[in-house]
Write a structure and sequence with these properties.
251 residues; mainly alpha; Serine Threonine Protein Phosphatase 5, Tetratricopeptide repeat; 64% helix
Length: 251
């Protein structure tokens, strides 16, 4: 340890001794890694600025938005419109008559989510509209394998096959639909149509009458019941149904 030093010393020799001791102490502190007063002072200063000389200076012709120091324009930029979901994009394409474009959108979406019921139903509609009945049926059967009680798929598949004249295949789908939703007038009507084409007149009549009971102004069910009465040799009842059908249709 350095002895206590007074502010003044009596001789030059004593002052030289004190100086030697100070130098020895400084060397000892440096060797032990203790910061010097200058280092302590520097440590209390803010960190030095980092300059990236690869970026052009602000205000130069080469300055880009996003570079430090480059101010953005005050002019508001309109936000990008949100991307429509695949179903809406497909419907927009169909409205333009672009069935191939609609199918491309739906195919891409289903490649990522192959069991998406909504997209499968939508694609079946586009397939049917463009005459691809086999592909439409495949999509509807896919839905029903996953959800056997899916009313929309049952109705769509029954309607699809009935339009192809496959009445026998249509009946089970419509029967299942009315079992699941007994108050669904459209399903009872479709069942009556299929049974009428299969000459099951008593069952067809019951189905039409149930549809009319649920929806008294169902013009097509009234007309179908008129046809059944005609086939049953009941012309007066048939005429009455035809008249009711015209009134319901506003004719």
């Amino acid at each position: 340890m350095i002895r206590k030093r007074e502010p003044h010393w009596e001789s030059a020799a004593e002052r030289a001794q004190v100086a030697a001791e100070l130098m020895e102490e400084a060397e000892s502190l440096t060797a032990r890694g203790i910061a010097t007063p200058a280092e302590v002072k520097r440590s209390q200063l803010p960190p030095p600025l980092e300059v990236d000389f690869s970026r052009p200076p602000a205000g130069s012709a080469d300055a880009r938005i996003g570079d430090p120091g480059v101010e953005l324009s005050a002019t508001p930029v309109a936000p990008m419109p949100p991307q429509l979901p695949p179903r809406e994009l497909a419907r927009a394409a169909v409205s333009r008559g672009d069935h191939e474009g609609a199918l491309a959108v739906l195919d891409a979406a289903l490649a990522a989510t192959p069991d998406d019921t909504v997209l499968l139903l939508e694609r079946s509609v586009v397939h049917a509209a463009s005459g691809r009945y086999g592909a439409a049926r495949h999509d509807l059967e896919h839905v029903l394998r996953a959800e056997p009680g899916h009313i929309e798929a049952l109705m769509s598949l029954g309607t699809l096959v009935s339009r192809r004249g496959l009445w026998v295949e249509a009946v089970p789908h419509f029967r299942r639909a009315v079992e699941l939703q007994p108050g669904y007038a459209a399903a009872w009507y479709q069942l009556g149509e299929s049974l009428n084409h299969l000459d099951s007149l008593s069952e067809a009549r019951a189905a039409y009458e149930r549809a009319i009971e649920l929806e008294p102004r169902h013009a097509r069910a009234l007309y179908g019941l008129g046809i059944v009465f005609d086939r049953l040799k009941r012309p007066d009842d048939a005429t009455h149904m035809y008249r009711r059908s015209r009134e319901a249709a506003g004719r």
